[in-house]
Amino acid sequence: MSKPAQLTGTIIAAHGRHYLADVNGERVQCVTRGKKTNVAVGDIVKLTATSADQAVIDEITERKTLLYRSDQYKSKLLAANVSQLFIVVATEPGYTDDLVSRATVAAEAAGIDVHLILNKVDVTESLERTRERLTMYSRLGYPVHEVSAKGNPGHAVATLQPLLKGQSSILIGQSGMGKSSLINLLVPGADIAVREISAALDTGKHTTTFTRLYSMPDLGPDTSIIDSPGFQEFGLYHLSEGMLERAFRDFKPYLGGCKFYNCRHLNEPQCPVLDAVRSGEIARLRHELYGQLLHESAQTLY
What we know:
302 residues, 5-stranded mixed β-barrel, globular
């Protein structure tokens, strides 16, 4: 009796405990052993084939990076092995600074580069106000790229394609920011791919409820882009106090100069971080988020 085939694949879609892997260009439906759900899109996995197009996940190979969000009770894996995060915002509907800032903190903690995409710049009525809001991030060194997926698709592609080359990227954003329009521009045939993946995962009409990875061989063998469902909250309960202060890029110049070695940068005396907030070097909005995240971190039950 022949031994089941051992395979290596990349997870390209996930829905519940059902996964789809790309194995040398072939789609293979996968499940985990038992009730484990610790597999992320972008993971490179070792598989045991159970039929021509089905397999069991035996092992997740070592990850370069892992981006995830968490609430008080559980974690939600967003993507593994990504090198950069694109946060899509738009002139309308309005986006929340809370979500954008939380995403930058998560990426910093995971060692992932961050870019912001301002979409719908053809909606000029609120463009200047939106640009002004984004200066908080550009001052921190996060690049902001202005595009209009529908108004000027050619310019959008010309702007974003060079940034994607040779990288594994993930796009996130709240619903309504135009993320799907950007994906459809950057990945010709994405709609067809979604339908195929949906059928393979048996998710029917719920095509927007799962994360999926698209290879972009035209931009190089290691180029891919991951599209994630729109979400409104980005919990970071998994980040400890020490991880949090280091994940705020704006805090870094001031860390290590506090009077007290266990300073939390909230109301302690002789704290350079608090001095920087008072002088405007650190945006008050960012410091308020830091305080909120510290509070959340203290509530963690796992």
